[in-house]
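Appendix B. Extra example for self-study. Work through it before the problem class; the solution is given directly after the inputs so you can check yourself.
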Amino acid sequence: MAKLIGTGMKRVDAPDKARGVAKYAGDYAAENMLHACLVRSEHAHAKILDIDTSALPEGAYCFTAKDLACNVIPFIFNDQPALAEEKVRFYGEAIAVVAADTLEAARAAAKTVKVTYELLPAVLDGEAALAPDAEKVHEQGNICGEFHRGKGDPDVAFERCALVLEDMFEVPPQEHAYLEPEAAYTYIDEKGRLCLYSSTQNAFLDKTGLCQVLGLGADQVVSRAATIGGGFGGKDGHTIQIFPAVVTQKTGRPCRMTFTRKENLQASFKRHAARAWAKMGFDENGKIIAFKGKIIFDTGAYAAYGPSVLSLGSEHFAGPYLIENTQIDGYLSYTNNTPASAMRGFGAPQGCFGSEIFMSKAARILGIDPLEIRRRNVLREGDLGAIGQRMDHSVGLLESINKFEESDFWKKAKADTSGEYGYGVAAGCLSSGFGKGVNDRATVTVEKTADGYTVYCGLVDIGQGSETALVMLASESLDVEPEKIRMVMADTELTDDCSSTAASRSVYIAGNALLEAVKEIKKGKDKGVGHAVFPENELDSFGVHTLYGFIVQGAKVKIDPVSGAVNVLEVHNVTEAGRILNPVSVAGQMFGGIVMSTGYAISEGIHYRNGVAMEDSFASYVIPTSVDAPHITSENIEAYEPTGPYGVKGIAEAPTVAIAAAIANAVMQAVPDAHIHTLPLDRTEILRHYKKEGGVR
Amino acid sequence: MNVLRAKNVSEAIRMQKETNGYFLAGGTYSMVEINSERFDPDCLIDLSLCPELYGIREEEASVHIGALTTFTELEKSELIGRLFPALQKAAAEVGGPQVRNRGTVGGNICAASPAADAATPLLALDATVVAVGVNGERKIPIRKLFLAPRKTCLTPDEVVTEIILPKTGSRSGFIKVGKRNALAVSSINMAVSAVITDGKLTDVRVAAGSCAPTPRLCPRTAACLLADGLNAVPTAQEILMEEISPIDDRWATAEYRRMVAKNMLSALMQEMMEEKA
Ligand SMILES: Cc1cc2nc3c(=O)[nH]c(=O)nc-3n(C[C@H](O)[C@H](O)[C@H](O)COP(=O)(O)OP(=O)(O)OC[C@H]3O[C@@H](n4cnc5c(N)ncnc54)[C@H](O)[C@@H]3O)c2cc1C
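Solution. Structure tokens for the complete assembly:
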């Protein structure tokens, strides 16, 4: 029996996807199916005075808040209605669901629904929202969350620093840009249950939502994930599921809904825009003495995962360094912008952009190599992180820095005296798991079948490769060929609730549960049920984490002298993720995360005009193409996490944390006078300071 | 929506009169407009079967480019590359390979986007647009074609049949800047064409896109360069910044467009003066 751990086993989902037979939610269809679309708000902030459906054509249906048993989406704050009733809080908010026999007919019918509004002043800036006299998005005010944590006394410590850096940083909302837009399909099965197939990261949460909003019992709803074309956090929570479900509940007919790209860009969850003020003090040897940071995340009209993003973002703000004196203050504000929620990196990239720029700036000013200054400050196992959390698991930052230093990329960078390119590095960590006080567990069942085993797991493969990873773990531990393993995932009828496919946790938590289940099988049982619970940090701070993955990244850039455009030519990446289960999968995650965040660095971002996203297609929301993406190389260090399945740690989000800063640092090497503190990197500022202004090369 | 297919230009004109429809060439502009519900025509008249609209033809003093010539054809044409490098470069930088395979030069100028990439070099190269309609043929200097964003001086029945470029022996260049390196709308583009005899400029045209409501010539900038060649570039840059009228929009700010326009002018002048005659 071949040993699989550490091999680049091929993706089990690849053949179906490559042949086009994988079934996405938007591929489901049935005779008699209704097509649905939404009537959406045309304003960022307004009272709804009237919804007039009298012109609705025959054969079309229209459902509003009045048709719902309970108009509250169950989530962290329960602050969002499924369908806006008294007022709308963002442009594109759902007001009514319209259904008809064809999509064209549904869209035409939706246009006949007339909504009368009374406009309210819109709150469009996360910082301005916190002013005491700001217009209120929600009755209780615009402060959706706060985070305050620190240790030592930074104000006193700054006094004895050789160098203190201080600046304001600003980053825009980012779109996940998954290939598959949000889609869902609902029908009533032969047992009379309302069944949902959706593009989701949490089939169980979807079921809870349907039960609550539609007033159905737990035995009346079945929720399943279809094949998913990318999630990145954006499909975790309430996106589209409720809408076709209302139609099916009321009409008894199957119903399907898919968002257009425009709806996706203008009205679906985003990465939080943020404004951050950071102050970092160093001694003459580059040792960080103190860090003080304040960060404001704009969560838009509804909290969604905002409160968790706030705490994770604050926790990671100061970077992966040992700092004795810290103070971190985070704020989450409500505005009338598109709701922001989970996105790969979950609040960390926003703060780390500033702190990693400071690390390289300090290195330059103090005359220390940028890797060396990071090495002098690394967190090691047993150290206390920025908010006082103990690093009590595998911590491979030092080894990652050392490996990076040995890379061809870095050697060439050091040897390059041409003056044509800029080089920059950055380091980062990203937590795995939900964090302290959040129920983070999984139950996985393994069943012996006639010709192998079936594994039941409530998590979803959203394209990241968790299905393949679990097949590898099952195959290895049961000592059978991978072909003998059948996976059943994300089905509320057949699998157990393992909560969200999120937080770089799937392989770790489900892998551990799976290995527990296998132990039962090995005892001779035909069915094994395994449970796993995520370890928690001893620090008494809600949401704090205990297990982190580490990365070091470097970028090589060339500035276009005419346009100031930043061409990211190369990126080198070193990862510490415990033991590497599948190096091809890990490389895939690194490459994808790097390309995604290269876009964040150079060209992406949503601009709102009166709360309306101006970027409403992939022509104006500019993600990197193959000629914009850097040439990427990636290595892993050998490590082992004792609590993980076969020594594995989660790593899917880490590549997004520091790369924008690495690119910014490369730009600052090329154009040292430019004040780089915003994303996407400001070409105007770069041009202003480019050494050959006037632009002839 | 009806789609009619015309077998030649006169049939296309007749179909247009009968249906009040819109012409369709490569569809890379029209179909996007239709799918995004900004354009809702009752009838489209496909021109792709009209033989008169194809081909690049060289004559004694001019080159005739059929309206249905695709960007890929322009990019691959040895003749265009030799005589009109600005047009070749612009064609090579349009969209991505799929769009270049379908998108046509006629469609590009008729769509009249302020950012149309073929319009700028055609302005700099002093193109003449030939249009045929119910009232016969018109020869329109391209500088008179564009009236406003998405609006030309063509009447709905007029088919652009070809674009004529005079063979002046000019050198020319084109630069485009978008938000990324492919599939990018021009935040700004520029083409310069100049006849250079014994190191002296005898005829100069500067055209810019995405920095006014239509792609346009910058005659004052050109006049300044004509007077004093490369030495005049700094003064010409100042004139250019006043001559264009860019705005802030989602593609760029006015300030950025001015800075880049300035850089483009010097880069293009440098490139042309250095080029071996
Ligand atoms: C992904 C993508 C990327 C793009 N990138 C670029 C780019 O980088 N640069 C750029 O400039 N453009 C770009 N475009 C826009 C478009 O491809 C070009 O403008 C193209 O030249 C349009 O030509 P077409 O033949 O496809 O026009 P069509 O869509 O067929 O027609 C466009 C308009 O012109 C009219 N028309 C066409 N031919 C004639 C004729 N012979 N006589 C009279 N009227 C006519 C039509 O009625 C219509 O109004 C892009 C489009 C897409 C979808």
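Self-check: The CA atoms of residues 293 and 328 of chain A lie 5 Å apart. If your reasoning did not lead you there, revisit section 3.
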